[in-house]
Amino acid sequence: MSKTDFERIFHPRRVAVAGVSAEGFGFGRGIFLSLLAMNFDGELLPVNPRGGEICGRKIYPSVGEIPGAIDFAVIAVGAAQVPETLERCRRKGAAGAEIISSGFRELGTPEGAAREDAVLAVARRGIRVIGPNCFGIYCPKSGLTMLPGPDLSRESGPVAFISQSGGMAIDFAFMGPWLGVRFSKMVSFGNGVDLRETELLDYFRTDPETEIISLYVEGVADGGDFLRALKAAAAEKPVIVYKGGLSEAGQRAVTSHTASLGGSRIIWEAALRQAGAIQVHSLEELAQACLAFSLLPRRPYRGITVAGGGGALGVAACDMAEAYGLSLPRLEGEIYAGVLACLPQPGSSAANPIDIANPYVPPKMIKEALLQAARDPRVDIQIQAPLLYHFKALSTMMGAASFPEITPYEELAAAARETADASGKPVVVVLPNPRRRADDLDVEEVLRQARQAFLSRGIPVFDGLTEAMRAIRHVAAYAGH
């Protein structure tokens, strides 16, 4: 096989979409309309034996009747027609194709396995294949999107995601923008008959658009090759791995999902540690780790401060810090006095955790307190937990016209950025929300706006202390490996 032309795969100029019906709904029509909605940068060429038109474009009866060469293909035809369609794409010069169709080895039948073998035989003649049984590629820069993704973000970022699961990939693609994660490229490879985790790791290791590599895998084709690629990639970029199917029940689910053999928990955990990869245990943890790696300097964090309202928050912070290998050094002497002088009295505490006591303290005072705390050489990073939901009660007591109008999240975000810049020590924000009744939708809206205010200034935001400390620990672990 010739060298893989990843440029034509991720940034194709001419894309054939096989299996596009002129009306109704099917996967082919759905992915075609999704590509149109994404304003895909290249030319889309729909294919269906019945011909016709869609959105003013001619539907070609076969890939072979498309004039000229193509770069890439999306195949969403019946499983029995996939090998022949793929061969026609190869003859048209396509560098690669994604096969959305299912009905292959994941069925656990001789017929399904034979179809997959036929696909592999075509691939070996000179076309790279993603799938079958997958959601395909999402590339914000070119406008390639996976199914169902007509409204994914076109804003590129540093995070690549390799996923054996289509559902996991599309969920992360939707989750990313509001969480603060931006993607370079995303690949859902499903059964992985050809192009899959190991080769994609090698590609993303050298891809200049990718700074962080994340993976969801259920099983690998070759354990030795995978570990080699993983170790090489982790030596240059953070690699975050969510391994599915580590439990006995999970193993059964994996086999029926993508026909993979997953391996034992102990072996996987040891292998990931030895390779220098970061292991996570849920999609949420993976996304939070990607956020932290995107916005935090890669340093071996150990000492932290936690500033927020309420003594219980401080107690919880101490317990969590220990669980994640972090510490809250007690502020003393001149630094303690400096922090305390910035806080309202009575009721505040400057020992660390820093109990601000009053949720309505002006952002400037919080900034000054954090700047004082950052003078302690044992402090590497600071966590601020503004309790913005309390401003709703304040607005009621004050008779204010609007709760959002009196909530100073823009000022808090600006102060957090200024604190981090002036001290040289990152600031992480936690935005908890215990108010989730039907009449608290305005609180949800304010917190969404606050999240964006912090993120737009490069300040990572988490929903709780556990998530924040766990993400900090991942960055510190990678920096220290």
Structure notes:
The chain has 481 residues and is an alpha/beta fold. It has three domains: 1-129, NAD(P)-binding Rossmann-like Domain (Rossmann fold), CATH 3.40.50; 155-295, 3-Layer(aba) Sandwich (Rossmann fold); 297-480, Rossmann fold (3-Layer(aba) Sandwich), CATH 3.40.50.261. The protein has helices at 6-10, 27-37, 82-91, 110-123, 166-179, 197-206, 223-234, 248-258, 265-275, 283-295, 311-323, 333-341, 363-373, 390-398, 403-406, 409-423, 441-455, 465-480; strands at residues 14-18, 43-47, 53-54, 57-58, 72-75, 96-99, 128-130, 136-138, 156-163, 183-188, 212-217, 239-243, 278-280, 304-308, 354-355, 381-385, 427-430, 461-462. Helix 5 (166-179) links the parallel strand 9 and strand 10. The longest helix has 16 residues, at 465-480. The mean pLDDT is 92.
Question: Which terms would index this structure?
Answer:
481 residues, Rossmann fold, six-stranded mixed beta sheet, five-stranded parallel beta sheet, 18 helices
Give the overall average pLDDT: 92
What is the H level of CATH, i.e. the homologous superfamily of the largest domain? Succinyl-CoA synthetase domains
Q: Assign an overall shape.
A: elongated
Residues in β-strands, percent: 15-25%
Computed over alpha carbons, the radius of gyration is: 26 Å
Helix proportion range: 40-55%
Query: Could you describe the largest sheet, including whether it forms a barrel?
Result: 6 strands, mixed
Count the strands?
18
Name the structural class: alpha/beta
End-to-end span in angstroms?
A: 37 Å
| Total number of domains | 3
CATH architecture assignment of the largest domain:
3-Layer(aba) Sandwich
CATH topology of the largest domain: Rossmann fold
Uncertain spans, ≥5 residues at pLDDT below 50? none
Contiguous helical run count: 18
Multimeric status of the protein? single chain
Within the largest sheet, what's the order of strands?
8-10-9-11-12-13
